[in-house]
Amino acid sequence: MAIVIFFCNEANEKGEAVTWQGRKYDVYPIEGSGFEMNGKGAAARPSLKVSNLYGMVTGMVEDLQSLAGATVIRRKVYARFLDAVNFHSGNQEADPEQESVSRWVIEQCSELTSVSGDICPGNAD
């Protein structure tokens, strides 16, 4: 059974969930680092700190074997290309092709507290 969760750490200009390619991404506190890639040296080793608001991360860790083996997909999109529904006056520059997609497989949830869960994606998929 695949569980798919779509979230973004910011709201659109209307204060609502961001819509990208017709799909809503719920506003949820998350912080990522280490995504930089440079063609030389070791591959990027990103880490994610996800809010454990309402025990969401705790539930996922308990139900899904510490999240090991789950896939994280990061979609990087400039706001100016987001779907028109995100803006009070629409968006003539909306372009669903303007994204950069990265995929990682989670190795472990390295720290879990009542405040947050630190997730360590490993190798790129």
Automatic annotation (TrEMBL):
GO cellular component terms, A-Z: host cell cytoplasm
GO molecular function: iron-sulfur cluster binding
Top-level taxon of origin: Bacteria
GO BP annotations, alphabetical order: symbiont entry into host cell
InterPro entries assigned to the protein according to its UniProt record, in alphabetical order: Phage_lambda_L (IPR006487)
Pfam families: Phage_tail_L
NCBIfam families linked: phage_tail_L (TIGR01600)
Protein name in the entry: Phage minor tail protein
Organism whose genome encodes this protein: Salmonella enterica (Salmonella choleraesuis)
